[in-house]
Amino acid sequence: MRPALQSKAMTWVDGSGNVHPYGTILSGEKMKPPRVLLVNPWIHDFVAYDLWAKPLGLLSIGAGLKKLGAQVGLVDCLDRFHPRLHEYLGGRLPKSTAYGDGHYHSEPIRKPEVIKNIPRRYKRYGMPPGLFREMLETESPDVILVTSGMTYWYPGVFEAIRLLKEHFPRVPLVLGGTYPRLCPEHAQKYSGADLVYAGADTGEIARLIYGLCGTALPARTAAVEDPAPAYDLYPKLGYVTLRISSGCPFRCSYCGWYLLEDGFRQVGPDNVYKQIRSFAARGISNFAFYDDALLYNAEGHLVEILKRVVRSGLAVNFHTPNGLNARYINPDLARLLRRAGFVNPRLGLETASAARQRSTGGKVNNEEFLQAVRFLMEAGYKTRDVAANILMGLPGQPLGEVKDSIEFASAAGVQVRLEEYAPVAGTPAFAQSGLHGGCDPLWHNNNAFPLYRPEDSRDYQKLKDLARNLNSAALRMAD
Ligand code: B12
Question: Does ligand 1 have an atom closer than 6 angstroms to the CB of 74?
Fold first, then answer.
């Protein structure tokens, strides 16, 4: 796990250009609680879809700061449900599906130089910048916290930082989230933030924020450890995302969770159930789990939560965009998932090659996958409900292997979701991807992959077509 080096080893620059050593910001005497503005920036990408995406880290920080007494505001460029966005765009806003996921508003923008040869349109996903500026008019923060998602979304982060700096030139701006955690040097050098924070310690973040504002930190700092995300900052919620564990017991060669988190921890079942119940009481019926290993130790954790959900008769839907580990699905769990409201379970198969399953970490094998599909079908799921995630473009992976994997998953009677491999800097697979640590993070984009493996790019399309055709055929057969 990386230390939060960028916060400790650096200086920070205030709005007037004065440089301060980091140590000088951690004490303060003012008693007035700070006003904190949280910002979730736009996505700049070839494609983006709101698959139940919420900035959970930023919302947890917001919740902790609120508990300490800070005044916290939020501008979420990706909030598709904001009443002002609907006013601003009128009928031009794409509609959500019945489950709350949906397309963002988007506007074409110029492609960054590095990826200019990718023959696809590049867009800004999220609210129009005009509305962003309007929203800033009513804010007067003492400090601004900007989060970030994927490393290759940094251009949207930079755009937000630029506009925030234009509007609030004297307010210290801190950048955190996945991008600076995986690419701290890049963020430090190019982001324009006054301070780049590359850690995830909510207590340290609270001390940092209070220090930056020159405010004395209240004694009750324990309140900021792992607080439930501040969803109350949203005027309207279409769904809620939950992360009820951190870390993962596996260490797959293509995944970088261990660069971001220490060990494996689960949130107590009672706590999770109460959160679900309280959101359900406020009319939320769609919940997406963000966990890397949702079914691990299910007996002592998820099963307890879901039994309470079923017992209390909550009419809710659960979604698993991150994929479930088939190894842990048994007949009882399959029935419980269905009864509790898991509508479209996704299984993370990734590849059907036994050799690659072993060499990438051994999280699941084909027998376990087939068995899980059988249990899910026996529990009442149909072909259209269940999907298998297949990875395409892993370093050294022949395309024939992807084809075999698509056919294998389809023959098992589920839908196939083809995911392009996204290289995560610092992982063993990244080292084999042909990219180097110092490369522009835009190359981490799964859509940029065909550019550095151009010899394969035509075949990628063929594989996508194959998956689509097999999916339709499977649906026709099932009808
Ligand atoms: C949930 C999740 C998703 C969700 C939603 C992502 C989203 N848009 O929000 C879904 C399932 C959709 C998803 C999809 C993908 N994901 Co994903 N995902 C995750 C996951 C599991 C958790 C992220 C999370 O919410 N963490 C919880 C919060 C609490 O942590 P956090 O946001 O980092 O916040 C903490 C700190 O960063 C800090 N902080 C945050 N903001 C700020 C701000 C300030 C100012 C400060 C001081 C601090 C601070 O404080 C918080 C305190 O704990 C991570 C892995 C992981 N374990 O982190 C991968 C991860 C981010 N995903 C990854 C990948 C590769 C993908 C995909 C490309 C996979 C694929 N090939 O299809 C897709 C594509 C995404 C897309 N185009 O939309 C990679 C990263 C890739 C990259 N280059 O950045 C990760 C690291 C996993 C991996 N494979 O290694 N993902």
Answer: no
